[in-house]
Queue: 2 jobs
Job 1
Amino acid sequence: MTLEAQEIRVRYGRREALRGVSLTAEPGEVTAIVGPNGSGKSTLLGAIDGTLPHRGHVRLNGQDVSGQPAWKLAATRAVLPQASRLAFPFTVIEVVRIGLQAGTAGDRPEVPMQALARVGLAHYADRLFQDLSGGEAQRVMLARVLAQVWAPVEDGAPRWLLLDEPVSSLDIAHQLQVMEIARDFARGGGGVLAVMHDLNLTALFADRIAVLAEGRRVAFGPPADVLTDDTLSRAYGCALRVSAPPPADIPFILPHAASA
Amino acid sequence: MTAITDPLVPPRDRLSRARALHWMLAAFLLLCALASLQVGAADVTLTALLGKLVSGEALSQMERVVLFDIRLPRLTMGILVGAALAVSGAAMQGLFRNPLADPGIVGVGAGAGLGAILAIVLGALLPAWMQELTGNHLTPFAAFLGGWGSTLLLYRVSTRHGRTSVATMLLAGIALGALAGALSGILVYIADDRQLRDLTFWGLGSLAGASWAKVFAAGPLILLSIGAALMLGRGLNALALGEATAAHIGINVQRMKNIAILAVAGAAGAAVAVSGGIGFIGIVVPHLLRLRSGPDHRTLLLNSALLGASLLILADVIARVIIAPAELPIGIVTAVLGAPVFLWILLKRRGMVET
């Protein structure tokens, strides 16, 4: 019962964006994918969620996803895209309800409001989605995704959240809120696979980290093993030092020190 | 039209409101249908006929012909065409994720126009037995083939490896439209005066040629296509979030596209074939309904069918009475009424957004 990607290869025209990347995400854990721009993070997620044509195999709870009908996959995993544009003037609650219809909690009409409350936007239910700020829209989309897989475990099988840069347009308080939601989902027995940009948040919330560079996996393991001077410096192509405090006269703000 | 007063509906109960609207619009359609049977060039009114029926008097031959052979098929045709155009519009807007899309976007209009012009201008060149066989159904038949054919062509062009690109379809549609326009232009150039007149009137649209034969020819296809389109509500809602997200939500996106495109080609193609070019219904009707009860396609498609049918037969009533005993092409009526209403809504909306 894992989410397993095996030897994933993706080509964009002549360019090989992923050159055989494998990783296994465990239920009960937050697995993060990090790496520099263009390293193939979102491409890997796109291959795993079935959006991008690829070579290699993806197994969801032991079953190969290729050939499985969309509705069946939708009952087991939900995908949060990087950005969402909505074509028509739906309200916030209507958008979340679209997620509910997709999942298996369709007979529980209270779930969309609970999902909205979870992301702190219950009072926005009747607003038009198009009028929201970028960060608010992203949280509403997270609520939609949560409504789709509301229970982290169903019929004894874990469900999965695939998140593509879930905190990219959020302020620091909401970054923490969203990452806590992801961690709670994992603690509840579900699995989370997230593409992350922020290394500090990743260090704080991920149980396992895959580092990509130039379409290859250069490291995979728990934060303490992966987030090292050497690995990061090589992956990002600049000299990085982990857990080194900056010079005394420059202030720094780390999510590690935040408390609600 | 009473159903379009306040765009600022509290969204919370939009779904139940949209469902209540089914019944209001059905009642409105019934009213419009009665009006359509009541008035016309001949001095026969529904009320007088009902009076006769109540008193047990027999209908005269003329009354029977007017009611059963002229007004009733025309009314039926109007309902079918109006519903087909409005549902096609709503479905295309959902598929292209653009409130300005209409059946023309998949080449129905251009192809049907070319087919009709071919039939009108070159129909006389067909061997006599073929002309006899097709009679005056040649133009609608050619229009339908043209609309259907160009849609399928566009669809083939924009589908690769089993995936249809709506963006390619849009661009290819523009190219195909220009090509059809040029071919039509050549035919117009060689047409004689009578043919030019026929062409112009075909382009303006009319229900005047309605007959039971046409109803039975176009009706089944239109009903089937509308029925298929009505099943797309949930999928089109999901598609509003984008193709990738719709797939993640569990929608078989490619199958939905197939159904939507074929349904629109069938419904709009048949509607254009029997009635000519009737504009504005496909864009205005879904737009009005979205303002009233939100964009949820689960209710929007059926409401569009009901309102589209009502407005088209209402426009037909106006077309018949306004310069009686002659009648105006209905496309003129829908444009003259539809365009100002559309502008008024846009201006009102803008005013509300700015204040």
Job 2
Amino acid sequence: MLKINNLHASIEDKAILRGINLEINPGEVHAIMGPNGSGKSTLASVIAGKEEYEVTKGNILFNEEDIEELAAEERAHKGVFLSFQYPVEIPGVSVTNFMKTAINETRKAKGLEDMPAKDMLKLIREKSELLEIDRKFLSRSLNEGFSGGEKKRNEIFQMAMLEPKLAILDETDSGLDIDALRIVANGVNKLKSKDNAVLVITHYQRLLDYIVPDFVHVLYNGRIVKSGTKELAHELEEKGYDWIKEEVNA
Amino acid sequence: MELKEKLVSSFLAFENSVDVDAYVHDVRSDAFKIFEEKGFPTKKEEAWKYTSLNKILNEDYSVFPKQENALEYKDVKKYLIHDIDTYKVVFIDGKYSSHLSQTTHDGIDVCLMSAAFSKPKYRLVIENYFNKAASKDSLTSLNTAFSSEGAYIHIPKNKLVEKPIQIIHFSTGNESALMLQPRNLIVVDENSHVQIIERHQSLTSNAILTNSVTEIFANKRAIVDYYKIQNDNSNASLIDNTFIKQKQESVASVHTFSFGGKLIRNNLNYYQEGERIDSTLKGVTIIGDKQHVDHNTLVHHIEPNCESHQDYKGIFGENSTGVFNGKIIVEKEAQKTNAFQVNNNILISDKATINTKPQLEIFADDVKCSHGCTIGQLDESALFYMQSRGIPKKEAKALLMYAFSNNVLSSVKIPEIKQRITKIIANKLGVSIGFDL
């Protein structure tokens, strides 16, 4: 589904990603871990199509199509979803209206009519129950005044609504208490199927107790320096990242 | 002939053509002398530093329309708030249109200045209020000199006016270029509440220059909510001079939505003459092309324990220019004043300009005053956030601009106005978002 070949990316001439290779198949859960500043969030943003980053080398294939030239919304229409580490506040636009816009714009891009209001309401009800979201919450302005947990839960709610093929969760566990973490992880797990894939980006291992990865990769200095299974995550939790750095630098 | 000369030469004829009430006559004559002496303001004056009238004064304006024109309701319906019941005072080329209006004397006066000037029963109100809030600057004086028509609204005490009142000025273009000088007087007595919507709309590509003066008196504990919808076409210019005198414990708000027109200058002046007064001044400006919108505000805190809240948002595209000049004066006696002012701007084009200038003159020592202005661009990370949800950039920008304006929109108390404004914003930004913003 996703195939990244020798990806180099920079921002304002500063190289951040220096040759990433990664392949994700349908039905798989991958985790990318790594110390601060290793390029984890950059990788997420580059896959999702953030314009500020310049791809200087390599490519990203999504379902065999090179998506390098596609705008962020076009990637979204094809099924790429990014759950933000810091979701943006949009005053005056309710969660419901934002989702209606997102869904109908995606449908429009596919040549479909707007979703009938009745179906939309049903979908919203169904997905908000999945994330244990209160109805009142849906009429609040998007992310405005939301707690850290509410923001992340809302991100996964949006993911549930949009049903992406590839969901990238960027530090979704940061700022979550254990209850919120459980709800969020539970939501992600329920949405998992053999046809979609999840890329979890995290600094800590604890989220991976709930969203269990098939593969774990360690990102350091803009490269994937080690890959393994979920045991690797445990090892990192115990030993930290220093041994990886030493290994790489040696 | 230059516009000033034309106005000077037509003043006598004008005075002879209208009523000869001695009081009003004297006020007009005095005002005319001021205009004759000062002329139109130029960029040399501090208050006009960033706004030049040269371009709009060059047209060959008729100062009185030669004929009366009619409009059909169906053709102008879209410019009115029509989905709720309202009183309407409608003018066509400066003349009252009884056909389009819906006025009343049922316990309140929603009628005409021409009637108020000529009928004895209004005499006392005219003598007590007419030109008592307006300043002596040249444009206001010019309007005063030629004042003959406009909306006259008098709400006696203890009345809650349930229907909003719309004051609409249409211009038809039957003159090659037309100058209009509407004069409105609004007196709201003790404990009364009124909501007013004002709009100037040109229906022609001919040049229109409106120099409007509105005096509003909010007496003790009165509540006045005033909405100005400025979405005129690109050949129409507006100089709006509004003066609000507030008495003890009154609450007055003016929301100004500036989206269209060639040049707009809003002179909005508040005078707080009592304690525990609340004044609100808010505005959203979204312009492009070569449009120019200038907000020039004054809040004069004269008595203790009063508040003022100013919040102006501006979005400027293409070659447009914006000006915000907000003056707050806190007199020595006005202790415990809370005066707040915010002006946030977004420039979405390299060629757009905004000049913003707060002016605080504080003579009291126990006050809370703050001001802040920002000039920025649209938040790229917010755009990316929305795009990553499948919302195309254009629509994402529109949503973001709407969100930016939301602080002002959210205090609009009439839902139909809020809807109308959001629709205008969506149109202006060329998007349909799939829901009524």
